């Protein structure tokens, strides 16, 4: 199978549209006067005037305007002639077709896509891509419709990116050092931009920026995943509270021993530790109990 030869943009020259407009306005009456004087009342003069008028009328189709950050791709009888990027009023061979291509930055928001992440969780993801045409010849000739091509390739790249990473690292199946969609958004965005650039180079497109704008679990598992995240947060908070409480109890026992405030045997020490942990780790305010007897009564 023969590989496709990529097109390459090249510039081309044009005539000033204002100059040719002056020719089209002044040439007919001047030529008519000259021909009438050369062949006064003759048939030849009339025919010549008719032919020149027809040529000037045909030449009117050669006028075109290029706006700032726009371009015109010129094609003459199926052959690429060049690209005009200079803004202004131009004139070229009227038989040339002039394809209009925008060089401005395009801001495209992809639709929200439902896809499974690396470990199989269904998620919803969307992105915003900023791109512009870099090579007008490739955009015009190497793909069928470059606007539609960009749209399809963006969706494909977003799907591939979402399937290549886990949503987050809350699951035991995920490597703690893995790049996640939620935890490494900048790295994921750079990866998406790189993949898009590789896909869109064929169409002469330059990707300026790619960002993830929508990222969430699919509705069918969102509630379960929320409960899981809440449970993880509660466990982490409990672990922090217990660690802090143990440190405080240890510090209290050290101070009691150093200052000789009270002598504690193992059983009294265990009771004190238990009471302090209940006070420090409990959800509600502790209820004091007055002990009127001894510890062993």
What does this structure look like?
This protein is of the alpha+beta class and 297 residues long. It is built from seven helices and ten strands. A hairpin with a 5-residue loop joins strand 8 and strand 9 (122-133). Helix 6 packs across helix 7 (266-281). It is rod-shaped and about 135 Å long.
Tell how many strands the DSSP assignment holds.
Answer: 10
**Approximately how much beta-strand content do the residues carry?**
15-25%
**CATH architecture field of the largest domain:** 2-Layer Sandwich
What order do the helices and strands follow?
Answer: EHHEEEEEEEEHHHEHH
- Structural class, by secondary structure, is alpha+beta
Taken from the alpha-carbon principal axes, the silhouette is rod-shaped
CATH superfamily of the largest domain: Band 7 domain
The total domain count is: 3
- At CATH level 3, the topology of the largest domain is Tetrahydropterin Synthase, Chain A
Could you describe the largest sheet, including whether it forms a barrel?
4 strands, antiparallel
> Could you name the ranges where pLDDT drops below 50 across 5 or more consecutive residues?
none
- By CATH reckoning, the class of the largest domain would read Alpha Beta
Radius of gyration: 39 Å
Number of helices: 7
The N- to C-terminal Cα distance equals 97 Å
Q: What is the overall pLDDT average?
A: 80
Helix fraction by DSSP (H/I, runs of at least 4): 40-55%
Quick synopsis:
The chain has 297 residues and is α+β, with helices and mostly antiparallel strands. Helices cover 46% and strands 21% of the residues.
């Amino acid at each position: 199978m023969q590989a496709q030869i990529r097109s390459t943009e090249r510039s081309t020259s044009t005539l000033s549209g204002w100059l040719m407009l002056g020719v089209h306005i002044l040439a007919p009456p001047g030529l008519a006067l000259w021909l009438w004087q050369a062949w006064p009342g003759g048939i030849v003069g009339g025919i010549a005037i008719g032919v020149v008028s027809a040529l000037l009328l045909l030449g009117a189709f050669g006028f075109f305007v290029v706006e700032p950050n726009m371009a015109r791709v010129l094609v003459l009888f199926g052959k690429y002639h060049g690209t005009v990027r200079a803004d202004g009023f131009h004139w070229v061979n009227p038989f040339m077709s002039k394809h209009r291509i925008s060089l401005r930055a395009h801001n495209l928001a992809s639709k929200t896509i439902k896809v499974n992440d690396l470990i199989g969780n269904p998620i919803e993801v969307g992105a915003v891509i900023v791109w512009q045409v870099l090579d007008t010849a490739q955009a015009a000739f190497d793909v069928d419709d470059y606007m539609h091509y960009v749209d399809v390739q963006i969706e494909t790249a977003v799907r591939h990116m979402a399937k290549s990473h886990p949503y987050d690292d809350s699951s035991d199946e995920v490597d703690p050092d893995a790049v996640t969609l939620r935890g490494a958004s900048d790295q994921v965005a750079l990866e998406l931009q790189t993949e898009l650039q590789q896909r869109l180079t064929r169409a002469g497109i330059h990707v300026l920026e790619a960002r993830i704008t929508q990222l969430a679990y699919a509705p069918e598992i969102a509630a379960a995943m929320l409960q899981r995240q809440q449970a993880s947060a509660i466990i982490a908070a409990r672990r922090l509270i217990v660690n802090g409480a143990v440190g405080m109890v240890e510090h209290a026992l050290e101070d009691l021993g150093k200052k000789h405030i009270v002598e504690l045997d193992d059983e009294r020490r265990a009771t004190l530790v238990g009471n302090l942990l209940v006070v420090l780790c409990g959800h509600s305010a502790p209820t004091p109990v007055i002990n009127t007897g001894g510890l062993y009564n």
